[in-house]
Amino acid sequence: MTSVDNSGRTDGLYAANYIALSIMVVSYLGIVIQGTRGITTRVLIGYLVSFLLFFPVTTFINDIALTSGIAHSTFTGVMRSATYWLCVVLVTSTILLVYYGVRVVWFQFLYPEFIPKKI
User: Fold this and answer.
1) Is there a domain that residue 94 lies in?
2) Please, which pLDDT band fits residue 6 given cuts at 50, 70 and 90?
3) 56-87: per-residue pLDDT in tens?
């Protein structure tokens, strides 16, 4: 049983939920990086490790969890799907660009007195 049909479309509730979870985690990390004022090498490495650990930890938990065969096959099917990666990249990029635009308008035009000072 797989979550990807012959035409390459992902289907099912597990696939949609996993895509939404991935978008949420990646977007959150992107927003945190955008809001960090004093980015150092140590902080950047910490963010990168945090981002890169999400997928292996999720895979490991799925492998050891006592779930039904449907959830396990859906997870592996979704991770192999190009549609999954396309959705994650496009939606996350849209979220981060909109968030960046709101920050620019907020700090540059509406309230320039609240521009974060460099550390």
Assistant:
1) yes
2) low
3) 777 777 767 666 555 566 666 777 778 888 99
Classify 10 as helix, strand or coil: strand
In a domain, residue 46? The reply is yes
Please state the domain count of the chain: 1
Question: Residue 36 sits in which domain range?
Answer: 13-114
pTM exceeding 0.90? no
Residue 8 lies in a domain: no
Question: Which residues does 98 contact at the CB level (< 8 Å), separation at least 6?
Answer: none
Residue at 119 is within a domain: no
Residue 23's contacts (CB-CB under 8 Å, 6 or more residues apart) are 87, 88, 91, 92, 95
Q: Name, in order, each residue with C-beta under 8 angstroms of 90's C-beta and a sequence gap of 6 or more.
A: none
Confidence label for 1 from pLDDT (cuts 50, 70 and 90): very low
